[in-house]
Amino acid sequence: QTPSGEWRLRTFNSMVYGSASSKDLLAGKWYEIGKSDDFRQCECPSVYPLPAATPGTEAAYEEARRAGMPDTVHKTSCGGDWWQLGSYDPGAPRSVGSFKPTPGWEDVFAQKRIDQGNFYASKDNEYPTLAGGKRRINWGWATVPPASAQTLPREVTFNAEARALQQYPIEEIAGLRAAAAFDRRGVAVRGSVGLGVPAGVARQAELLVSFALPSESATFGVRIGGSSSGDGIGCSVNYTAGAANASVACGGVRDSLPLLARETSVELRVFADWTFVEAYFQRGRVAITAKAAFSPDTVASLTSNVTVAADVSLFPMKSIWVDPDKVRAAPRVYK
After folding, report:
1. How far apart are CA 4 and CA 321, in angstroms?
2. Which letter, b or e, does each residue of 171-203 get, where b requires 16 or more Cβ atoms within 10 Å of its Cβ?
């Protein structure tokens, strides 16, 4: 909604439509405004205000806001899902407005892949937090066997220090955790270190690991899988000491992870679900959805080619399904 009260809607073919007021919007009264040359033609477009600060980066966010940072996210689906950040000027009512690079932030106006893996046609909306605030949640189509699935709902935030949007499973996901099958701090990892959880537990589980960054270059990560050939998947961080970015991967899917000079650890959070994984590096600064086949003897291990310390938790994950009566009895947010 623009400051004038007009609602704007963009469609896949870059057309912009308007509704003069909230009353007209609810009544379904729309008019054609025109085609925007600033919004490229793609499936599943979305335009929304820059989301809240990534937890722990609020001071940098506020400093950037005062100096002038992007105010709008533009998301599209074209051979993958992409987003870019810029400045939106709505212009006068019944005009298409403009979406341009923000001075000093031209790099984030470039299209950036949201998830390099099996992820497409994501949808977002603004939803309340458990505490009654607001948050932007996005979830995608996981194009995985046997017949696709929805990814975990991901809260989108902006890290002004890293100059990047981050996406991280919403806090309610922790409610699906069963008692930890493994929970230990300061685990020394070199080579392959098994977690010793019962066979099969790790194929429907959350593995949360924080690796202390070593003083030397290293490759470290996790592996979830069984003994069969082609079974399971490994997710890793290829770290070069002092570098501003690290190469990360899950299976054959790769991306680049921005690192801050002040950071002393890298978090890797992997959700395994029978035929695929969702991996989140550094609280979702990079997210990867990847296919993986998990056999009944699936186990979990940590890997590293140098000695690193890791804090590790593995939680079996309970089913998402609930009794229909519980859904009907739940408090209503939208009435």
Report:
1. 43
2. eebeebbeeebbeeeebebeeeeebebeebbbb
CA dist 311 and 302 (Å) reads 11
Give residue 20's pLDDT. 98
Is residue 246 predicted with pLDDT exceeding 80?
A: yes
Separation of alpha carbons 302 and 268, rounded Å: 11
Counting Cα atoms < 13 Å in the Cβ hemisphere of 113 gives: 17
Distance (Å, whole) CA 148 – CA 136: 24
Specify the amino acid at residue 69. Answer: M
Q: How confident is the model at residue 22, as a pLDDT?
A: 96
Tokens coding 41: 């033609």
pLDDT tens profile 162-174: 999 999 999 999 9
The pTM of this model reads 0.95
Task: For residue 226, name the pLDDT band (cuts at 50, 70, 90).
Answer: confident
Q: What angle do CA 89, 94, 100 make, to 5 degrees?
A: 20
Q: CA angle, corner 218, sides to 214 and 220, nearest 5? A: 95
Six-digit token pair at 153? 């709902």
Assign 211 a pLDDT band (cuts: 50, 70, 90). very high
**124 C-beta neighbours (distance < 10 Å), count:** 21
